[in-house]
Automatic annotation (TrEMBL):
Substrate binds at A135, N214, G215, R222, H246, L305, A306, G307. Belongs to the metallo-dependent hydrolases superfamily. NagA family. This is N-acetylglucosamine-6-phosphate deacetylase. It comes from Kribbella pittospori. SUPFAM superfamilies: Metallo-dependent hydrolases. Gene3D superfamilies: Metal-dependent hydrolases. The keyword Hydrolase applies. The lineage of its organism: Bacteria, Bacillati, Actinomycetota, Actinomycetes, Propionibacteriales. The active site is at D269 (proton donor/acceptor). One of its GO terms (molecular function) is N-acetylglucosamine-6-phosphate deacetylase activity. The keyword Oxidoreductase does not apply. GO terms for biological process: N-acetylglucosamine catabolic process.
């Protein structure tokens, strides 16, 4: 049996890791003193919120199995080896169609199946208010409905693994408890719920906050408000869009320090416009959008964000400038992997080598340079 070798520096310890692998699986890991000439090596980035990237649109009318395959390949090139397709608020029929296509892509392609652990329904049970609703279509916002979720699971082989809910709805706690009992994760997000409703959601089993600090009113009372309530709720692990546009660096740092690294994770929230040149586009998220020279994605003619354009590798570099590379990778690998499958995200014998990345990064770099 032929044995191949891959080497790099562990971002957490600085040691050199020599990986031996055969038949696509890591068979042995040797540690040696660090070598500054080697690239960094780690498990691939894990992105819990991907609407699309590089022209591939999970919420578009032309979604197909090839779209899902192409998206996986495009994300792999920027270091993401595990991602959660995210479907935004839409009609029940549209969501079921999209879920069926993603499920079929997983059945047809083992690499797609390995990259996609489940699907995230970001809505439709969110706030109908301007601000918290974000770029979601108000026409399709609706109350929680277990029967609708069951139909989604029926057409997708039970692929829904995460739902974002605003707990302001009547009996939302009952819905959350029922959903969690089936093994689906629930996140609080796109909400105008008060503190008591957020605490009740956590008591019912909600464990996450969707892109905390965004999907919110432009102005809030100093206190109380739903951001403080989620920051204070230790049962909620919070996602953050670390692109420099969705959160100012001081806000991001303060929020992560409040939550702690073990309850913080980075997401891209990328849409199909991500990875494309500046210009105007028509998007399933936000309609007519403008991608500015500095990477800000706006609903055309407004100051409102329409999702994100930067891949998670950019977010890691941005977060590393505020914290450190190991801390940023903890939020992009360790915490999301724990949410996905309960592992710590560190390389182990038996891991598939396709889930390993090597990359270059040094302070001041604006992204991780992923090695092919």
């Amino acid at each position: 049996m032929a044995v191949d070798r891959l080497s790099g520096r562990d971002p957490w310890s600085g040691e050199t890791l020599h990986l031996e692998y055969a038949d696509g699986l890591i068979s042995r890991i040797e540690r040696a003193p660090g070598d500054a000439d080697l690239p960094w090596i780690s498990r691939g980035l894990a992105d819990l919120q991907v609407n699309g990237y590089a022209g591939y649109d999970l919420n578009g009318d032309d979604l197909s199995v090839d779209t899902v395959r192409g998206l996986r390949e495009a994300l792999r090139r920027v270091g993401v080896t595990v991602f959660v397709p995210t479907l935004i608020t839409a009609s029940p029929e549209r969501n079921r169609r999209a879920l069926g296509i993603v499920a079929e892509a997983r059945r047809q392609d083992a690499e797609v199946a390995a990259a996609i652990p489940f699907v995230h329904l970001e809505g439709p049970h969110i706030s109908d208010q301007d601000g918290p609703r974000g770029a979601h279509d108000a026409a399709f916002v609706r109350p929680p409905d277990l029967a609708e979720l069951e139909l989604c699971q029926d057409v997708s082989d039970g692929l829904v693994g995460l739902i974002t809910v605003s707990p302001h709805w009547p009996d939302s706690t009952g819905f959350i408890a029922e959903v969690v009992a089936t093994g689906i994760r629930v996140a609080v997000g796109h909400t105008h719920a008060d503190g008591a409703q957020i605490r009740a959601a956590a008591e019912a089993g909600a464990t996450l906050s969707t892109h905390l600090g965004n999907g919110a009113h432009a102005q809030l009372p100093r206190h109380p408000n739903y951001l403080w309530a989620q920051l204070a709720e230790d049962r909620l692990t919070a996602g953050f869009i670390a692109d420099g546009h969705h959160l100012p660096v001081d806000t991001f740092v303060a929020m992560v320090r409040a939550k702690g690294l073990d309850r913080s994770f980075l997401v891209s929230d990328s849409v199909a416009t991500g990875g494309r040149p500046p210009g105007t586009y028509s998007s399933s998220v936000g309609g007519d959008v403008e991608l500015t020279d500095d990477g800000r994605l706006l609903v055309s003619g407004t100051p409102y964000l329409a999702g994100a354009a930067a891949p998670l590798a950019d977010g890691v570099a941005w977060a590393a400038a505020a914290f450190s590379l190991p801390e940023a990778l903890t939020m992009a690998i360790t915490t999301p992997r724990r949410i996905i499958d309960g592992t710590d995200g560190r390389l182990q014998p038996g891991d598939p080598v396709t889930d390993v990345i090597t990359f270059r990064w040094q302070p001041g770099d604006r992204t991780l340079t992923i090695n092919a």
